[in-house]
Amino acid sequence: MEIILGILKGIGGFFAGIPQAIADVFTLTSNVGQIYTAFARWIFILLALFILLTSIRSLLKSRNPSEVWAYLNIGDYMNVPLRHWENVIGRARSCDIQIDDMSVSRNHGTLTRDNSGVWKYMDLGSKNGASVNGRRVRPNAEVQLKAGDRLQLGGAVCTLFPISIEERRNNIQFRQEDTVVASPWPSLVALTVFQIMTVIQLMIGLGEKYNAQITISFLGICVLMWIYVLFLRGMKRRGFEMETIAFFLSTLSLAVTATCLPNQVFKQFITVVMGVVLFFFMCTWLRDLPRTIALKKVMYVAAVLLLLFNVFFGTTKNGASNWVQLGGLTIQPSEIVKLAFIWVGAASLDELFRRRNTLYFTIFAVFCFGCLAAMSDFGTAMIFFVIFLIISFLRSGDFTKLIVILGVTFAGGLMILKFASASYVASRFAVWGHAWDPEFISNTGFQMTRAMTAAASGGFVGLGAGEGWLNGIIASETDLVFCVVTEEWGLLIALLAVAAIVTLSVFAYRSILAGRSTYYTIAACSAMAIFLMQTSLNVLGSVNLLPLTGVAFPFLSTGGTSMIASWGLLAFLKAADTRQNASIAVSLKDKGLGEEVDEI
To answer: Where is the FHA domain (predicted)?
Structure first.
């Protein structure tokens, strides 16, 4: 037994010593390291182009066809296909189902479907009311509709009919033929090669600063992505473009962390693992719409407690007190609250035209703005403000618009008064567009002038991971991460990272047009807006085209809470993906591949 243990220990020691041996070779022979870096920079470009363009092409090529769930026959002259799970019926042009009849109110009622296929009608307090099979429907009360039931809206008579078995089969066949999904294996192999080459490059670039954490972290993310894809392939899923993009950006994040904070790499890797776990959990949870909406109250409470805890126990960093120290960990609660904000907003306004829900959400939003103002977190406050507007106006009636206007006016005034008085915010606005002026270049403009200089020195292919000097500047791994990537990895890879985020957003926008539920539409739109806004603020702020706001680049910036939140936001986009077998957030049963129970 001792002999066997000795052999195993020797084998383990051999493999453990390989990274150091490679590092020693490149350290002792500097010319070898220089030659490797010279060639590797171009290989990195080719690998990044292949990985990202394969995923981008697949996402943009998919058309996400809408699906007919039932038909609503209106009188003797109209047969309307129902392509969404929530439909507003009325005379107004904005209604999903428009009935040109003066006896029908502008927003008469809603027709909704749940996961099990049950359709329900709810009257919105219409003037002439509604009845089902002659029985009066009380305002704001849901009534189940079955095949052939007679729904009367004022003077208009409607009948709900299911799609035929043949139509259902045709829909499934059409979706299978129309869905274009790139095979994950070539991209995973390319990304694995990218990760291995990155480790070698970091050994060369960092020299003595290189440590075992870096090797373990890159090995870990490589194993993680392979396990994830293999596991989901076993669940008959085949669309992994979003996850491939996220894993690529997370790999770059580990490289940036290794360059700027070598001793924090493993911690960043752990947050990637936590993000993937959260992503998987959210996708699974989002399958069940009633269960998802039922979690709204929990999200309310969690968000309020997190923000209050931050306000009272937060520490100040870079002018904003949005950080909380928990032992050796530093977290940013407002990043997690973004997920809760979307969850609550989508769930509240998903129940169409219910004024109470809109009022509660507006109060909640104003509370969030107030807390962020107290923290002097200007960048996050801007994001919350825009998301509030997006969520509020996606589904709004006249009364809702009044509440929104009041809420926006109050919140906007609060933000202006608070942030205008914050000296650090004022200084950032003062240096905006004037970083190179003599009065700013050595003080408040120091970060941006150095960032732009470093980015310019990287050229198209970069200096090589670990070979840059911007990593010594404060907040280089967070606020200025775009310039760090440009310096060390080159402008091409930096722009590809931006293009990847834009592609995720474009795909999400196209997916929501065929979305099953208003909840998924609102949530995906909100997550899409956050990705775009954070990327824009980070990139344009680092090159002085916008004020520096301290907003993280999704997936790319170093920061555990930001990484976890990015994966959580991706789950909302994944839930809107209606391609056949592409999304774990859509059960096979919901797409007609299993035995589906439909009450109509």
So the answer is: 87-137
The count of other CB atoms within 10 Å of the CB of residue 39 is 11
The closest of 318, 317, 314 to 306, measured between CA atoms, is 314
Assess whether 277 and 156 both reside in one domain: no
Measured distance CA(593)–CA(308) in Å, rounded: 46
pTM: 0.85
How many domains does the structure of the chain reveal? 2
Q: What is the pLDDT at residue 47?
A: 96
Contacts within 8 Å (CB) and 24+ apart, 234-239:
235/584, 236/581, 236/588, 237/581, 237/582, 237/583, 237/584, 238/181, 238/184, 238/581, 238/582, 239/179, 239/181, 239/577, 239/579, 239/581, 239/582, 239/583
Give tens-digit pLDDT for 90-108: 888 778 888 888 889 888 8
Report which residue type is found at 28: L
Nearest Cα to 45, choosing from 485, 493, 476?
A: 493
133 and 185 in a single domain? The answer is no
Between CA 450 and CA 51 the distance in angstroms is 31
Q: What is the rounded distance in angstroms from the CA atom of residue 122 to the CA atom of residue 109?
A: 5
Exposure on the CB side of residue 350, measured as CA atoms within 13 A: 28
> Which residue, 312, 544, 530, 574, is CA-closest to 444?
544
187 in Cβ contact with 225 (< 8 Å): no
Q: Determine how many CB atoms are found less than 10 A away from the CB of residue 61.
A: 11
Domain that holds residue 388: 174-586
Which of helix, strand or coil describes residue 449? helix
